[in-house]
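Trying the structure run again after the queue cleared.
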Amino acid sequence: MPTLATIARNAAVDAVAALLNSGDIRFETSGNAQVALCGFGATAFGSAATGSATANAISDDSDADGGTVDHAVLRKSDTSEVMECTCGTSGSDINLSSLTIGAGDTVKVTSFTLSQAAS
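Done. Tokens:
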């Protein structure tokens, strides 16, 4: 299997990160209904280093729709899907303190990192 050099890993991460500028993270049920929506800033991520980039501040959803989170969709500012992530309480792409979100709850994303493996 080929191995990506760090320069290629950084380029891949930076390209995906740029797609998320002013986009959002939409948390959804298994039936794709919105549970919560948190927004990326105009510059969603810092520059990649060693194949990873850390998100800049992500806005809270201070009035969540509520429901049981199954997955999250990362979207561009025009709402087109960039990627889908698994959600759980541990060992998932996105780990939440609870998958059950109440209507009107505040949902915060405290950190988020995009990474590209070398192989």
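The chain has one helix and ten strands. Worth checking whether this holds up in the mutant runs.
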